[in-house]
Amino acid sequence: MILRLTNGTTTLVLHSDSGTPALGLYGVRYFPTKGDGNEVTETIDVVFSGVSDSALSAMSTVQRLIAEAATVPVYLEYSLVPGGTVYRSPIVSGRVVWSTERQNRQFWDTTTTGECAIILTRGDFWESTTETTLNDGFSITNGTASPYNAVTLGSVGGDLPTPISVELQSNNASDLLTRNVYLNLDSFAGLTANQHLVTSGADAKSWGAGLTYNQLLWTLTPSSTVVAKLAGKAVSIIAAFSVLPSDMYLRAALYSLYDGVYQQIATGVEQYANGQLLINLGTLQFPAAAHSGLVVVVAGYRAAAGSATLSFVQLMPAKGGVRLDVTHEWKFQETIIYRPDTTFYDSGLGQYSNVSRAGGPLMAWPGRTNRLSVLAGESAAFNASRQTIVTVKARLRRSTV
User: Fold this and answer.
1) Helix (H, G, I), strand (E, B) or coil at 103
2) Which of 46, 49, 82, 248 has its CA 20 to 30 A from that of 384?
C-alpha cells in the first residue's frame, strides 16, 4: 500500500510498502470506505517510531495540510499495491487525535514509539492523478454541415460521473471576434449525428409594424425520434440566425400541435438580440409523455417592421451546460480552455484570464455514450463554417479503490 497527503508542493508519505514513510513514521492501517455520495469520514491509524521530534514534525505537517484544505486543494493519495495506479480524493477537513494510552504517546525521551489517529473527511470519490484523453483533436464545424458541431467521447472508466476538461483550438485562418461559446453534454438522451440541430421550419420571415409574441414567426418541428429522446428533460434552446435586427426581442416556447391547433405548454424567458446572431433562448422542459405533435416556436417582439432569417435551432440537454464569455480575438491555433475549476485562454506562449464562465460542471458518465456539442458566436456574426479542434480530458472517478 501507498498512502500520502499532498497539496501539490508538499507531499507527506504516511505509508509505503516499497519504500519508507516520512521520517519518524513506521506506517499506517487504512482501508478506504464508501460514504453518503458526497463526503466520507475515515480514520487512519498511524504508528510512529524513531526520533520524537521527527514524529511530532510529521504530525504537524499533517495538521498543516488539513488546515490548508480550506483554501487550496489537498488530496489523500492511495494505491493498494506498490507500482499500481495511484488515486486521489480531496480532503475536506480533519484532525490528529493522540492515543489516550500513555505508553502510546510518550515524547519525553529523544526516541519514541506509539500510535495516533488521523480522522479525515474527504470527498466520497477517488479519481486518477493523471488525466485520460476522451477525445483527441477532433475537428468539427460550427453548424449544420458534417461532421456537425459535436464530438462523441471515448469510453469513460470508473463507476462515477466525472467532470471533463475541454480544449477548443481555432482552426480558422482569420481571427474570430468570439463572444460566447456554448458547451452542452448529452449522456442520456442519445442524440446522434445532426439530430440536435433542427432546421425544419427555419427560414426567412418578415412582419409589419407592431410585432408581438402572439405571432408565431418560426414553428420548428423536431422529429418524433428527437422528441422521444428529449422527453422529460430540461432542454437548452439556442437559435442561430443569418439575419436579425439588433433591436429585436426573442422568446422560445413549446406548443402542442393537434388537429391543426397550436396549444402553448411552456414559455421561455425573453432575450434581447443586441446585435448577436447566436441567441441562447434559455431552457424549456419537454413533457415526459411527449411523443408527437411537439413544436418549438421562436417568436419576437419589435415595434418596427422588419425581417429575419433563422438558420437552425439547437436542442441539447441543459443539465450542466456551460457558457464561455471570451473578451479577446480567438486566433488561429490558439486555444480556449474550460476546466472544472477554471477557464482561460492559451496563446501557446502564455495563459490569459480573458475567459469567464457560467453554468457547469460538464459531467461524463461511465457506461453511457457521452456527446459534447460546441456552438460559438462572434461579436456581431454567426458563421456556421467555422472549424474548431476539440480535445476532451477527464480524471476518471470511482467510488472505491
Assistant:
1) helix
2) 248
Distance CA 28, CA 226 (A): 54
In terms of phi and psi (left: phi > 0; alpha: psi -120 to 50; beta: otherwise), the region of 18 is: alpha
The pairing of strands 351-352 and 306-317 is unpaired
Q: Are residues 269 and 156 in the same domain?
A: yes
- Strands 335-339 and 322-326: what pairing? unpaired
The Cα–Cα gap between 327 and 156 comes to 33
Instruction: Retrieve residue 10's grid coordinates.
Output: 508538499
What is each CA distance from 260 to 66, 256, 257, 293, 296, in whole angstroms? 65, 10, 6, 10, 15
Q: Give the DSSP H or E segment for 57.
A: helix 52-68
Answer yes or no: do 43 and 151 share one domain. Answer: no
Q: Mark which of 99, 128, 157 sits at the end of a domain.
A: 128
Domain co-membership, 100 together with 227: no
- Specify whether 124 is located in the same domain as 159: no
Residue 291 pLDDT = 73
Note the pLDDT tens digit of each residue in 37-87. 999 999 999 999 999 999 999 999 999 999 999 999 999 999 999 888 999
- What's the pLDDT tens digit per position in 83-115? 889 999 999 999 999 998 888 888 888 889 999
Return the exposure string of 162-184: e unless at least 16 CB atoms fall within 10 Å of the residue's CB, then b: bbbbbbbbbbbeeebebbbbbbb
How far is 386 from 259, CA to CA, in rounded Å?
41
219 within 8 A of 290, measured Cβ to Cβ: no
Task: State the cell numbers at 296.
Answer: 418549438
Average pLDDT score over residue span 231-236: 96
| Averaged pLDDT score across all residues of the chain | 94
Count of the separate structural domains present in the chain: 2
**Cα–Cα distance between 231 and 293 in angstroms, integer?**
12
Helix (H), strand (E) at residue 60:
helix 52-68
Nearest to 397 by CA among 174, 207, 164, 159: 159
CA angle 155, 157, 159 (to 5 degrees): 130
Cβ atoms of 221 and 328 closer than 8 Å: no
